[in-house]
Amino acid sequence: MTFPIAIIGTGIAGLSAAGALHAAGLEVQLFDKGRGSGGRMASKRTEVGALDLGAQYFTCRDRRFAEAVQQWRDRGWIAEWQPSLYDSANGTLRPSQDEQIRWIGTPRMSALTRGLLGDMPVRFSCRITEVFHGKQHWMLQDADGKAYGPFNQVVVATPSPEAAQLLAAAPKLASSVASVAMEPNWAVALSFEQPLDTPVDGCFIQDSPLEWASRNHGKPGRASQPDTWVLQANSRWTRQYLDLVKDQVIEQLYGAFAEMIGCTVPEPVFGLAHRWLYGRPVGNHGWGALADSSLGLYACGDWCLSGRVEGAWLSGQAVARKLLQHRAS
Ligand SMILES: Cc1cc2nc3c(=O)[nH]c(=O)nc-3n(C[C@H](O)[C@H](O)[C@H](O)COP(=O)(O)OP(=O)(O)OC[C@H]3O[C@@H](n4cnc5c(N)ncnc54)[C@H](O)[C@@H]3O)c2cc1C
Ligand SMILES: NC(=O)C1=CN([C@@H]2O[C@H](COP(=O)(O)OP(=O)(O)OC[C@H]3O[C@@H](n4cnc5c(N)ncnc54)[C@H](OP(=O)(O)O)[C@@H]3O)[C@@H](O)[C@H]2O)CC=C1
User: How far is it, in rounded angstroms, from Cα 231 to Cα 239?
Assistant: First the structure.
């Protein structure tokens, strides 16, 4: 008997895998602990509009990814962002324009994952805590003790530390997954009553607690928002202040931003902090995806390739290929 394939995680990796399996005629069932899709590409809805607190944009180097990106653009899910780019090092702010094409979801980052999800079946606000073998097939259990299944295969598309726990039924696979550590990042959004008097749309930052700052409302589709900026702390600073209360994180990163941006920065009228506990994988791996195909357990995510949107999407494609090849063999 055939049962659906469970996919845990509706970030870009999980949705890439789900789309490829669905296109191959297989039935999938998605789960996510979040209230919507996107994971680290999600946008937070706030009183000042939807804010991209995770991925800021994505670039495209792989030919297969380039084809998908063109389709997404044609469907209106993404648009090219042409920021006025700067860099800041040793307190010096300089223009740093380049030729790179940068894409963003429009009118918010999560528009892309909403589009990819389409009408595939999904259960949100459902934190899976266990993947276990029933009589013959895989079952899932959530944090409330509710069971789901049976499933023929399970694809775990979460950050590596969460995936390692879910894959405990395949110890060798779980130990490979657990070998990829992930670094945290604090992200802060600040809104100002009047637009800041600066030409900067995005800035790569060194020698500061911050590594990136960008004008959220300057991105395509977000013009109706007040002047809102997203600031991202580097992993070193984040590790040091991992448990700082949010108000203090906002205050400190506001201070670092005001020092860096080179114009008067009034008190913000809105501030929000978000901690990404598993923001960025340490190192790049050329794995594509990992699996114990004989057991029917699979894993994908940015941590299998590069810690970027493109790496996550490619990993989702790789896991789907592995699964389809095993079914065909
Ligand atoms: C602050 C920040 C800035 C970034 N900026 C960029 C950028 O500018 N450009 C770029 O290319 N990349 C950027 N990245 C990286 C990019 O966001 C990721 O590489 C990519 O989104 C990862 O996708 P994923 O599907 O592998 O994982 P995720 O997006 O993390 O998706 C995993 C999903 O699994 C769900 N999940 C986890 N555990 C469970 C569970 N137990 N049960 C159910 N669901 C679960 C989560 O809710 C999540 O939706 C950034 C990341 C961060 C944190
Ligand atoms: N958890 C995380 O915070 C996290 C952040 N990530 C950031 O994602 C972007 C995307 O990386 P990608 O390789 O797709 O884009 P870029 O080519 O734009 O940037 C790569 C790095 O190259 C430097 N860079 C690029 N353009 C410029 C420029 N015009 N001026 C100066 N520097 C530029 C910059 O690195 P450094 O700051 O010099 O170290 C870019 O970071 C990228 O910003 C990641 O930091 C990815 C994953 C997780």
Answer: 16
